[in-house]
Amino acid sequence: MKDIILNCISESINTKQRILQDQSFLDKIEEAVKLVVNAFRTGNKVWFCGNGGSAADAQHLAAEFSGRFYINRKALPAEALHCNTSYLTAVANDYDYDVIYSRLIDGLGAKGDILIGLSTSGNSKNILKAFDTAKEMGITTIAFTGASGGKIKEQTNILFNVPNEDTPRIQECHILIGHIICQLVEAEIFA
After folding, report:
1. Where in the cell is it found (predicted)?
2. If you placed Cys at 49, which of 16, 101, 180, 186 could pair as Cys (CB 3.0 to 4.6 Å)?
């Protein structure tokens, strides 16, 4: 059992070390921060979506903006798109699960908003459809994926493809990257 524990921790550290040593990855974090800061400053919103554990991570990161990260400050307009279970179950039942996010982006999103999608595979159909809708509406997209980037790599403005194929290690890095973005955005806007 101890070997498994040590291996999980080591693999998580190794994945983060690979990100730390990848200057283009770090540059993309800075780019994402600038885009999110600009969206908030111009009165736009940041939307999040994901499935399963990635939905929980999406909701977590949205709350860092709409609640607070380090600073007691005004709420920033951010929300995870899966939080309305009545909507989610109705649309999944009446239409298709693949359109749950694209319909909300179409109804709530506006040009200048940002849509952040978390999908370890990069192939979640509902997120792919949401990114299609976002692109049509002039909404910037940021994708958090695993190493390959999946199909979403062709559809996103910024791709954070964590250099690992193991879902737990990918999700650990998604939260790290998301927290860095939240911290820097908050500091920039409320300094």
Report:
1. Cytoplasm
2. 101
Q: Is 122 annotated as a binding residue?
A: no
Number of domains in the chain: 1
Does residue 174 have a known ligand-binding role? no
31 is in an annotated binding site: no
Q: How many CB atoms lie within 10 A of CB 136?
A: 11
- Please tell me whether 119 is known to bind a ligand: yes
Query: What gap in Å lies between CA 99 and CA 2, rounded to an integer?
Result: 43
- Does residue 66 have a known ligand-binding role? no
- pLDDT single digits (tens) 96-131: 999 999 999 999 999 999 999 999 999 999 999 999
183 marked ligand binding residue: no
- Alpha carbon of 164 to those of 53, 76, 180: distances in Å? 17, 31, 19
- For residue 122, which amino acid is it? G
Among residues of the chain, what percentage have pLDDT more than 70? 100
In DSSP terms, which residues pair with 114 in a beta bridge?
46, 140
CATH number at residue 57: 3.40.50.10490
- Model's pTM, two decimal places? 0.97
The per-residue pLDDT for range 44-70, each reduced to its tens digit, is: 999 999 999 999 999 999 999 999 999
Residue 51 is labelled as binding a ligand: yes
1-9 mean pLDDT: 95
What span, in angstroms and rounded, lies between the C-alpha atoms of 5 and 17? 18
